[in-house]
Amino acid sequence: MGKKLLLNHIDVPGIETLNVYQQQGGYTALKKALSSMTTDQIVEEVKTSGLRGRGGAGFPTGMKWSFLAKPEGVPRYLVCNADESEPGTFKDRYLMEKIPHLLIEGMIVSSYALGANTSYIYIRGEYFYVARILENAIAEAYAAGLLGKNILGSGFDLDLYVQIGAGAYICGEETALLESLEGKRGNPRIKPPFPAIAGLYGCPTVVNNVETIAAVVPIVNEGGAAYAATGIGRSTGTKLISASGHINNPGVYEIELGLPVEEFIFSEEYCGGIKNGRKLKAVVAGGSSVPILPADLILKTANGEPRLMSYESLADGGFATGTMLGSGGFIVMDEDTSIVKNLWTFARFYHHESCGQCSPCREGTGWMEKIIHKILHGHGTLSDVDLLWDLQAKIEGKTICPLGDAAAWPVASAIRHFRHEFEEFVNKGHHIKDVRHYYRLNHLPEPVGA
Amino acid sequence: MEKKIEFSEESMAVVQRLINRYPKGRQKSALLPVLHVAQAEFDGWLSAPVMDYVASILEIAPIEVYEVASFYSMYNLKPVGKCVLEVCRTSSCWLMGSEDIVKHLEKKLHIKDGETTADGMFTLKTVECLGSCGTAPMLQCGADFYENLTLEKVDTLVDKLKADGERKVYTKDQKVNLD
Ligand SMILES: Cc1cc2nc3c(=O)[nH]c(=O)nc-3n(C[C@H](O)[C@H](O)[C@H](O)COP(=O)(O)O)c2cc1C
Ligand code: SF4
Ligand code: FES
């Protein structure tokens, strides 16, 4: 069993209530922080811990915090990113639903460290019932003097609110999130200025993912050095992985970073192997945006070393043979999965979610969806595959926010590793009316999901 | 008879609480949650008069409401059925059979994706990943998530929702038991 830092008490009945959470040692980090630590000391501990943002980009949290501008007389804000809309990712929902006080404690400690007196948790609108769980927990915390004025007699004041979104993946991008929190369309802002200088209402703001903020609790409790001692190399600590697709045990797992991918997929403790005794075909390891890898490359790097669940190991080989840890949305596909069809669901997703501000993203995602659809339905030509490759390359790096890259990478990697599947659709195309025909044509067993 | 567009006292109290969460002069921040309250109160969709009413409460121009309402997928800009069945169609759900769920519902309800049944009871909508990928396939109806779906469970759900006859809204959990 790997070490757990966030979900140790997840199975304790009633852990969603303040009482039980406190019985299990909850709010000791807050007490410790308020009674014996300066704000700078907390930021130092977070730096020492090596914690990296768990929202997808993996930016060092301590460094982000130390960039926060502190002009006199201007309020600062901490905003928690609970928008969680990256396909394949459901860890934040799990954490907030099961152990809401962990996030709330993290928010209070982090707000104290950053000098924020008002903080918001921005949660996607579809998670309305989770927002209600958070609001109940927040009400408990207010009643116990853990929120509001003069928290635990420390002189520190904090108001914490839940803000509900309304269905838009792009609002997970931090500046789009801030726009949305101001009651506007979720159009990402041009950076700089970064939120640390001009964020919510133009004030210095830190935006962090749910899991990042929750991790501040064990860091304060046990010290940054203890946190840094778990994990592997620069991938310190633990990570929540959302496992889905063709596996025996889908769900959220807290793993110590550095766990071999093979163990994660096949051991009973985690995914429990591929469903129905089929073979592993491919994995999208970090949410829909990261490059898809075929079975051999997800289990071993191009150098033949075992691939590990860590920022560095998953990225080993760059985009040629590697991928990214991303949000930890781990989607597993069995041997019968059509990579082209799966890609089409991603392409449709990005087209649907593009905010429309930049032409390469707005138009390019639409064209990618159309071309993949054409290939999938047997009307494509070999030059369409090249066109698709060309198109994704013309989106990547040419947009205001990284959604453009996120839309391009799955396409690029699918062509890179599974070009033959596109070509098969093209070559046998005229006979393929829907995907099932493709399988019959090739004498393959029909997939569960097609 | 035309229903007067005005929040109930209860909703108005909620709206006031929402506005108070933001610094003075930043009441526009409450727009998204207030639109949810409005949609729940006024038959599950946002008509132009409803949006104008929200604009007047938040002291912003109507266009500021329209541009937001048209951006976010959870706001309905035309009437919808009492129960909007939102089936996730993205990767993990597709891998686990969401297409079969959609086809089954289309056949059962005699409507296509995006349409509403003649009796105004159901609207079928396919949506993008709802964060239930580990319990796929899934659909959302109002605030409630229905996960690990099978065709049988979908049948039970549709029958129960129909018998119940209530409008399902995002702001209220009304989950029916499928077991
Ligand atoms: C299109 C897009 C969607 C994103 N969605 C999320 C999200 O749902 N949750 C999240 O925490 N970060 C998301 N991010 C990353 C945020 O912009 C930001 O980096 C993150 O919230 C910072 O927090 P962290 O440093 O704690 O990870 C998204 C980024 C992009 C470009
Ligand atoms: S890259 Fe796409 S989502 Fe991002 S700002 Fe441009 S159009 Fe909007
Ligand atoms: S893919 Fe359907 S809920 Fe995530």
SSE layout:
The complex is a heterodimer of chains A (450) and B (179).
Chain A: H1 18-23, H2 28-36, H3 39-49, H4 61-66, E1 77-82, H5 91-98, H6 100-114, E2 118-123, H7 128-143, E3 159-164, H8 174-181, E4 205-209, H9 210-222, H10 224-229, E5 231-232, E6 235-236, E7 238-245, E8 251-256, E9 259-260, H11 261-266, E10 280-284, E11 292-294, H12 295-299, E12 308-309, H13 311-315, H14 318-321, E13 329-334, H15 339-353, H16 359-376, H17 382-395, H18 403-427, H19 435-441
Parallel strand pairs in A: 1-2, 1-4, 2-3, 7-13
Antiparallel strand pairs in A: 5-6, 7-8, 9-12, 10-11, 10-13
Helix pairs in contact in A: 2-6, 2-9, 3-6, 5-6, 6-9, 15-16, 15-18, 16-17, 16-18, 17-18
Chain B: H1 9-19, H2 31-41, H3 48-58, H4 62-69, E1 83-88, H5 91-95, H6 98-109, E2 122-127, E3 139-141, E4 144-146, H7 151-164
Parallel strand pairs in B: 1-2
Antiparallel strand pairs in B: 1-3, 3-4
Helix pairs in contact in B: 1-2, 2-3, 3-4
The complex binds flavin mononucleotide, iron/sulfur cluster (SF4) and FE2/S2 (inorganic) cluster (FES).
Q: Summed up, what is this model?
A:
Chain A has 19 helices and 13 strands.
Description:
The complex is a heterodimer of chains A (450) and B (179). Chain A has three domains: 212 residues, Rossmann fold, CATH 3.40.50.11540; 103 residues, Ubiquitin-like (UB roll); 103 residues, de novo design (two linked rop proteins), CATH 1.20.1440.230. Chain A contains 19 helices and 13 strands. In chain A, a hairpin with a 2-residue loop joins strand 5 and strand 6. The longest helix of chain A is centred in the C-terminal third of the chain and has 25 residues. The two termini of chain A are 36 Å apart. By secondary structure, chain B is α+β, with helices and mostly antiparallel strands. Chain B folds into two domains: 63 residues, Arc Repressor Mutant, subunit A (Orthogonal Bundle); 82 residues, Glutaredoxin, CATH 3.40.30. A four-stranded mixed sheet of chain B has the order 2-1-3-4, covered by helices on one side. In chain B, strand 3 and strand 4 form a beta hairpin. In chain B, helix 1 packs antiparallel against helix 2, helix 2 crosses helix 3 and helix 3 crosses helix 4. In chain B, 46% of the residues are buried. The chains are: A alpha/beta (450), B alpha+beta (179). At the A-B interface, helix 7, strand 3, strand 7, strand 13 and helix 15 of A face helix 2, helix 4 and helix 5 of B. The complex binds flavin mononucleotide, iron/sulfur cluster and FE2/S2 (inorganic) cluster (FES). The site of flavin mononucleotide has 24 residues of chain A, from strand 4 and helix 18.
